[in-house]
Design goal:
The complex is a heterotrimer of chains A (357), B (292) and C (275). Chain A has 13 helices and four strands. By secondary structure, chain A is mostly helical. In chain A, the strands form two sheets. In chain A, strands 1-4 form a two-stranded antiparallel sheet. Chain A has a two-stranded antiparallel sheet with strand order 2-3. The two termini of chain A are 19 Å apart. The relative contact order of chain A is 0.16. Chain B is mainly alpha-helical and 292 residues long. With 275 residues, chain C is α/β, with parallel strands linked by helices. Among the domains of chain C are: 128 residues, Rossmann fold; 33 residues, no CATH class. Helices cover 33% and strands 24% of the residues of chain C. In chain C, α4 runs antiparallel to α5. Chains in contact: A-B, B-C. At the A-B interface, α5, α10 and α12 of A face α4, α10 and α12 of B.
Chain lengths: 357, 292, 275
């Protein structure tokens, strides 16, 4: 069961690792009590993005299947909530499973072309499906004359309803942790190995006796289900669904998360999600120093800067933030090795450097 | 179908064909799908706004200058960005074009805001409807688009078929390794393909802006023209022409008879249909599928 | 044979070592000389390192991350290892590849005109095209045909033709005879000698079919597992019993799989029975 991939984010590693993990966990649990409302909202957005980024990482980073359908799937999940709440006043224990189910079905639909198409053509077919989903949402809004989208009440059980940002933080943290657990387990399992074989070359995978079609569809279904649930949570969190939120730019942001984070790496998906979600705020802060002429077009500045950052990563650091991290660590290790040549080897380098491709 | 409807289809098909020629040129030569094509077309239109402002008294000069800029734009994109990705995975190159598209979108709003510009008004031109047949009228600029599309396609055909560089472009697309061994400089060929691609895209953007102005959403037309290229077969110029007609006819029929909201989705429905039935397109070569 | 020892070699390879992905070494110090206006054959079995040597000479282009890690390749006195292919073409080293040797969707005539001939006026280009049709008259009536529709032999002729249009000083030929009928191979062999005789072009043949190679060439090198194990004038090599036994398929029964293994066996082994 243990293979090279399991050293990646090993949950039960060395004692030092366990301590670091505990510290991180405590920090995550304490964060909402010290953060400002603005920071808390930011943290919640990052947690939402983490789910979608992990889902895309499973599909593209692990199984090598390119999808430009993330925004469409997020939109489908959000709209499931919107329509069910509006039409049937459904509660969240109905809408969330419904979103998951629709996600699974859409995953099957998005995945069907992958049985015949590869690479670029597959990406294009998912792009086509994106437009179909967006059209259906827009059509619903137009028919119901909802010029501003669908309002959604917060999820509630009895008299308790989830409205506080702190409450949301723990809910989203739980969902993100669940997504992380699913991703890590899938990566280590037989399924993860089959996906890796697919990514390398599906002809070879077939020769190895792997049911290529089954594992491709499985990747799409798992990924789409996770994405759709993230979309549903997004709708609840914002109290509101509008199809305008699910533009192609959103898809590009998610693709950027896995590129910038580091293709094929789970910690990369987390880093990438945080980077991409925090980026606009960094730009906004930077825009404060610019001439006021740029004040009302910060979003354009954000676009331009984001494009540049994506290009720089693609050209200069294809392994993303994880690539940079591994390099920094290697440099430190090298320095430590030269300054203290007698230190015991092994303990310093807990995980294999090759764990993130 | 009324004659007016047919005229509308022809005009829309001409727009799609003129835009999708650029997709085909770059794909055929370097197997890169340029998803920034729509944005590059939009920049071409904005450049016309700029040159029109500088030379409002001399429209010919302004148009010429904008057209040349369109050519230079592609050369620059290749030299600055795409050449570093030669020999890399095709998908990395496609992702770079997506990033470039976002960069250009942001830049264009920073420079030209989200306001709509009418270069025709700067020249003092009007764009009156013309009766081409009894009961059938289209704008002068639309007529110009149809004429220009025919000219561009004829010129591209002659160029690819009969000039040394045209043959080299075809050769490089088929077998880059052999082309390099026969002394063909791949970077030069690729740069030329990019230049011609943005040149034709700029022409389309310029004429569209003369017809109905330019604003920051023009890039969407570039994305909608992409299915036309794929329906015909990504490596076939003739296919792009036929694909443009099919997509335009489907789109206008859907708007007319079903639901105007379908406008944005019909090209992609056609695309999904083609991908399901014949993914290499009507006139494309089948081995394209295994390349990516 | 016709080797003039005091002349400078056109191509001089010394102690060449090539590795793939920085680790898998495919050539362990190969040394060979190609004198001007000779035909030299580099022969050996599949995987012996022939193609690697050829790629190193013609220039690597992203092929399995291969690099020259030691030794030198000199062309006309100049070092050329790890140069890009078009640079080597410009110097006068032109390859006739083993596979994908023509552009299938171009016509025969276009396949000739597409080559970026060095320092050639349009009049000279026309003369070169005519020269190709004179060398390979069978191609002349096929000018307008798509190269993808040609037979194997015609394709090989066209590959030679488009290489000649590049005005080579050194022609590298990867597997002249592979997949072709013996009659066609004999015809091609005559034409290769004609190319050398009439155009003064030096030829390096890389061949699996030792019989064919040594029939055309003046001088031969035998390569095994990345080492040159035997060299000499072609006629002499043809007469060597080891060559006959192992490469020319004249042996029966108890065959030796490697020349080197053979060399280590006592002479007059059971493999010689047939003589």
């Amino acid at each position: 069961m243990k293979d090279a991939g399991s050293s990646d984010l090993a949950l039960f590693g060395t004692p030092a690792r366990r301590i670091r993990l505990a510290v991180a966990l405590v920090a995550l649990l304490l964060l909402p009590f010290v953060a400002s409302p603005f920071l808390l909202d930011l943290a919640n957005q990052v947690l939402l993005a983490v789910i979608g980024a992990l889902a895309l990482m499973l599909l593209t980073g692990f199984a090598g299947l390119i999808s430009l359908g993330t925004a469409g799937l997020l939109g489908a999940g959000a709209y499931t909530v919107g329509v069910l709440v509006r039409e049937a006043a459904a509660a969240f224990w109905v809408t969330l499973p419904a979103a998951a189910l629709l996600g699974a079905i859409l995953g099957l639909v998005f995945g069907l072309p992958s049985l015949r198409l590869r690479g670029l053509y597959l990406a294009i077919s998912t792009l086509g499906l994106h437009f179909v989903v967006v059209y259906l949402g827009g059509e619903y809004e137009a028919r119901e004359a909802l010029s501003t989208g669908v309002m959604i009440d917060p999820p509630s059980i009895g008299r308790f309803s989830l409205t506080s940002d702190i409450g949301w933080y723990f809910v989203l943290l739980a969902f993100a942790a669940l997504a992380l657990l699913i991703s890590v387990n899938l990566k280590r399992s037989r399924t993860g190995r089959a996906w890796r074989a697919l990514r390398e070359r599906d002809v070879v995978a077939e020769a190895l006796g792997i049911d290529v079609h089954r594992f491709k569809l499985l990747a799409f279904v798992v990924s789409a289900t996770m994405t759709s649930v993230a979309g549903a949570l997004f709708a609840y969190y914002r109290n509101f669904v509008s199809i305008d939120a699910f533009s192609l730019y959103l898809t590009v942001q998610y693709v950027a998360m896995i590129i910038i984070g580091g293709m094929g790496s789970i910690p990369g998906a987390l880093l990438g999600a945080a980077f991409v979600m925090l980026f606009p705020y960094a730009i906004e802060a930077a825009a404060g120093f610019l001439p006021s002429r740029f004040g009302n077009v910060v979003f354009a500045l954000d676009y331009a800067a984001f494009g540049v950052v994506m290009i720089l990563f693609l050209l200069l650091e294809p392994a993303g933030l994880m690539g940079i991290w591994h390099r920094i660590r290697a440099a430190f290790a090298a320095r430590r090795a030269t300054s203290a040549p007698k230190s015991a080897p092994g303990s310093a380098s807990g995980s294999a450097p090759g764990s993130a491709p | 179908m009324s004659p007016q409807l047919i005229a509308n289809i022809v005009v829309l098909a001409a727009i799609y064909a003129l835009v999708s020629a650029g997709y085909v040129l770059v794909y055929r030569v370097s197997h890169v799908l340029n998803l920034a094509h729509g944005e590059l077309m939009m920049i071409g239109a904005y450049i016309l706004v700029a040159t029109a402002g500088l030379f409002s008294g001399n429209p010919i000069l302004a148009l010429l200058l904008a057209a040349v800029s369109g050519l230079v734009m592609g050369l620059v994109v290749y030299a600055v960005l795409m050449r570093w990705l030669t020999g890399e995975a095709v998908l990395a190159a496609v992702l770079v074009t997506i990033a470039l598209g976002i960069l250009l979108r942001g830049l264009s709003i920073l420079i030209w805001t989200t306001q709509q510009f009418y270069p025709a008004a700067i020249f003092g031109w009007r764009n009156p409807p013309v009766h081409i047949l009894p009961g059938v009228q289209i704008s002068v600029a639309s007529l110009a688009i149809v004429a220009l599309t025919i000219i561009v396609y004829a010129a591209l055909f002659l160029f690819l078929q009969f000039t040394a560089w045209g043959v080299r472009m075809r050769a490089a697309g088929q077998n880059p390794l052999l082309a390099e061994q026969r002394g063909i400089r791949l970077h030069a060929v690729y740069a030329l393909a990019w230049g011609l691609s943005t040149f034709t895209a700029s022409l389309a953007g310029m004429l569209l802006s003369l017809d109905s102005g330019v604003e920051s959403t023009m890039a969407t037309i570039g994305l909608k023209a992409f299915p036309a290229a794929l329906v015909g077969g990504l490596d076939s110029l003739f296919g792009a022409l036929v694909g443009a007609l099919i997509v335009a006819a489907a789109e206008i029929a859907a708007i007319q008879f079903v639901n105007p909201l379908l406008s944005d989705v019909v090209p992609f429905l056609v695309l999904l249909l083609v991908l399901a039935v014949r993914p290499w397109g009507l006139f494309g070569s089948r081995e394209q599928l295994d390349r990516v | 044979m016709t080797n003039v020892p005091q002349a400078a070699p056109l191509l001089a390879i010394d102690d060449l070592r090539v590795a793939y992905h920085r680790v898998a070494v495919a050539l362990h110090g190969v040394t060979l000389r190609v004198m001007p206006q000779t035909i030299v054959a580099l022969v050996g079995n599949n995987g012996a390192g022939k193609t690697t040597a050829l790629r190193a000479i013609s220039g690597f282009i992203g092929v399995d991350d291969a690099r020259v890690i030691g030794g030198s390749i000199r062309f006309a006195g100049r070092r050329i290892e790890n140069e890009p292919p078009h640079a080597n073409t410009a110097r006068g080293i032109v390859l006739v590849p083993e596979r994908d040797k023509v552009f299938p969707n171009l016509t025969v005539a276009e396949n000739l005109t597409v080559a970026a001939t060095r320092r050639a006026s349009s009049a000279e280009r026309r003369r070169l095209d005519e020269l190709v049709f004179a060398l390979f008259p069978a191609l002349a009536p096929l000018r307008a045909r798509l190269a993808g529709l040609l037979s194997g032999g015609e394709r090989q002729m066209l590959a030679f033709g488009s290489a000649i249009v590049c005005k080579p000083e050194l022609l590298l030929v990867d597997e002249l005879s592979l997949g072709l009928a013996p009659v066609v191979v004999d015809d091609l062999a005559r034409r290769v000698r004609a190319i050398r005789r009439e155009l003064g072009i030096t030829v390096l043949l890389v061949e699996q079919n030792v019989g064919v190679a040594l029939a055309i060439a003046d001088y031969g090198y035998v390569i095994e597992s990345g080492h040159v194990v035997l060299e000499g004038p072609a006629g002499e090599l043809r007469g060597r019993p080891e060559i006959q036994q192992f490469y020319l398929g004249l042996a029966t029964g108890n065959q030796v799989r490697r020349y080197r293994a053979l060399r280590e066996r006592p002479a007059n082994g059971p493999g010689d029975r047939r003589q």
